[in-house]
UniProtKB/TrEMBL annotation, chain A:
Keyword list, A-Z: Cytoplasm, Nucleus
Main localization, broad class: cytoplasm
Segments of this protein annotated with the region Disordered: 1-28
Protein name per UniProt: Translin-associated protein X
GO cellular component, one term: nucleus
An annotated Gene Ontology molecular function: sequence-specific DNA binding
Location of the protein in the cell: Cytoplasm; Nucleus
Family per record: Belongs to the translin family.
Gene3D superfamilies, per database record: Translin, domain 1, Translin, domain 2
TrEMBL record, chain B:
Protein known as: Translin
InterPro entries reported in the protein's UniProt record: Translin (IPR033956), Translin_C (IPR016069), Translin_fam (IPR002848), Translin_N (IPR016068), Translin_sf (IPR036081)
Gene Ontology cellular-component annotations: cytoplasm; nucleus
Any one GO biological process: RNA metabolic process
Species of origin: Anisodus tanguticus
UniProt record similarity statement: Belongs to the translin family.
PANTHER family noted in UniProt: TRANSLIN AND TRANSLIN ASSOCIATED PROTEIN X
KW Iron (keyword) present: no
GO molecular function, one term: RNA binding
Length: 330, 240
């Protein structure tokens, strides 16, 4: 066993990580030492062996499971050919565990990188959303164009990084790590699209924009339905803000349009929400969504009822026309 | 203002997408139900295995106990092949449904590992578990975390085993178990764990180790390990 220690160059490099490993707790247990068992003295030695084990596969196993599975087969054969003598027994255990360690290191590192990429996507998607909110009646085109441009930048810079990280892996395994970022991106993309065209950007359309980001040889990252729907649920909150903003600027037409759009989304999602994988999360979002819908509706209502007092203040003649049209819409 | 009309093309396109979503979600919901049904069956098999393995604490011979439990492994294999068939229907979504068979599989691993240990005194490896269950790693493999958690569960069983073996007069047992558990604990320390369930389970392993050390100490200090005298009242301390 000592030979193995000596031949492992990575051992000494890793002490801080071992400390994190919970193994450190052992040495703090006085009762372990008191027993004077032979086994104990071995513990620290084994611990020195670092987390990495003697070999390291390529940093990102394309498909974690597949790659590791192949190498373990080798380990198993090795284990079998070994004699059942106890020393070799424990070192075959160590061999196997060094493979597990590599696997865990890889997947954890990867998860960390995915979380980082996801956070960057969230941050920059939020910026796009704020940019959309900056629009007013005069500079609408200009502001939206910039938002669209920023969104494209999110696509190129951050989403592409996520796509590269996830390439060839089971997207569902790391879903929790990237889901928040993707949801925020869906929110930003659909918001931009709605302001530009007045329609809902569909999942297929979003996924089509992701295709060029990934290597054609591997299965491309496609946003899954669940993240898309969760993103849409958040979109209604932003649309509510947008609608209130539009109303205060007198763009009642636009506010009304938002109102009916949000209603439509809410109505369709009520059918879907209970079917979702994690429906408790969605249930909560549905409640928030309903509140957003109602906020927009009551804002529209106030303007409608007090419209006659309101419009002269804004001093724009044409805003009064949509008001007249409103009864038809409801 | 065409967009306000529920039957406008925009609204239709929107609705069409949601109809598709609903179909998709209903399908995955059905799939999940089928998976859960198999998982329930796996769960009941593991109960049978566990119940028969518990007899080792009553000093029945290992081979006798194992025979009974082993018969159930074939049943398990069948269930797992059904499970992998279901999952094959949705390629690349193993981890979407993974949660539905996770805890059952962890129990399965712990039982297989315990049986394997009783028979050979060694740790069953990840690939060996896959083999025992007839799993094909490229299609439906065993998640490494599940394997490791299962091994931690197995370690929880060992202190009780040692205590009962000593009571039954096997004074060499603590030494063997201690050696095994020490090696296992050392092997686990090679892993860099996250703050997750596995980490918690691993942290619990040291208490198993301590317990076994205590039993070993009790047996050794009374010189029982060397000569096989039966000194009933002494072992009581080992259990306290």
């Amino acid at each position: 066993m000592k030979d193995m220690m000596g031949s492992n160059p990575r051992g000494p490099l890793k002490p801080p990580m071992m400390g994190d490993n919970g193994g450190g707790g052992l040495s703090k247990l006085p009762m372990m030492g008191d027993n004077g068992c032979g086994g104990l003295s071995r513990l620290p030695m084994m611990g020195d062996n670092g987390g990495g084990g003697p070999w390291k596969p390529p940093m990102i196993g394309d498909n974690g499971d597949g790659v590791i599975g192949a190498t373990w087969e080798g380990a198993m054969k090795k284990a079998r050919t070994m004699s059942t003598e106890t020393e070799t027994e424990s070192s075959s255990m160590k061999d196997a565990f060094s493979k597990y360690a590599d696997y865990l290191n890889n997947i954890n590192d990867k998860r960390e990188r995915v979380v980082k990429a996801s956070r960057d996507i969230t941050m920059n998607s939020k910026k796009v959303i704020f940019q959309v909110h900056r629009m007013s009646k005069q500079n609408k085109e200009e502001v939206l164009d910039k938002a669209v441009k920023d969104l494209a930048a999110v696509n190129d810079q951050y989403l592409s990084r996520l796509v590269k990280e996830l390439q060839g892996t089971d997207f569902w395994k790391l879903r929790r790590a990237y889901s928040p970022g993707v949801q925020e991106y869906v929110e930003a993309a659909t918001l931009c699209n709605f302001c530009k065209t007045g329609t809902l950007l569909t999942l297929d359309e979003i996924n089509a924009t992701l295709l060029p980001l990934s290597d054609p040889s591997v299965e491309p990252l496609q946003i899954n339905i669940l993240d898309y729907i969760l993103g849409l649920a958040d979109l209604t909150g932003e649309l509510m803000r947008l609608a209130i903003g539009r109303i205060s600027e007198g763009e009642l037409d636009f506010a009304q349009k938002i109102c009916s759009f949000v209603r439509e989304i809410y109505r369709n999602l009520t059918l879907i929400a209970p079917e979702m994988d994690d429906s408790s999360d969605m249930k909560q979002k549905m409640e928030v969504m309903l509140q957003s819908v109602m906020k927009i509706e009551s804002a529209c209502f106030s303007v409608h009822v007090r419209g006659s007092e309101y419009i002269p203040l804004l001093g724009s003649a044409d805003t009064s026309y949509p008001l007249l049209g409103m009864p038809d819409l409801e | 203002m065409a967009f306000l009309n529920p039957s406008s093309p925009t609204s239709e396109k929107l609705e069409k997408q949601f109809v598709e979503f609903r179909h998709h979600l209903e399908e995955s919901g059905n799939l999940r139900e089928r998976i859960q049904a198999v998982a329930t069956e796996i769960d009941s098999v593991t109960r049978i295995i566990y119940a028969s393995l518990l007899l080792v604490h009553q000093s029945l011979s290992v081979s006798e106990v194992i025979e009974k439990a082993k018969a159930q492994i074939e049943v398990l294999k069948e269930h797992y092949s059904r499970l992998s068939e279901i999952v094959r229907e949705c390629p690349g979504q193993y981890y979407r449904y993974h949660g539905d068979w996770k805890s059952e599989t962890q129990t399965v691993v712990s039982l297989l590992a315990f049986m394997h240990w009783l028979e050979t005194g060694t740790l069953v490896l990840h690939s060996e578990v896959e083999e025992k269950l007839g799993l094909i790693p490229t299609e439906f493999g065993l998640d490494v975390d599940d394997y490791l958690v299962g091994i931690c569960f197995m370690s929880n069983e060992l202190p009780r085993y040692v205590v009962n073996q000593v009571t039954a007069g096997d004074y060499d047992c603590p030494r063997k178990v201690l050696k095994f558990l020490t090696d296992l604990h050392a092997a686990f320390r090679m892993l860099n764990l996250r703050n997750d369930f596995l980490r918690k389970k691993f942290d619990g392993m040291k208490y198993d180790l301590r317990k076994v050390e205590e039993v070993f100490y009790d047996v050794k200090i009374r010189g029982l390990a060397a000569n096989g005298d039966s000194v009933g009242e002494k072992q009581a301390q080992g259990q306290s």
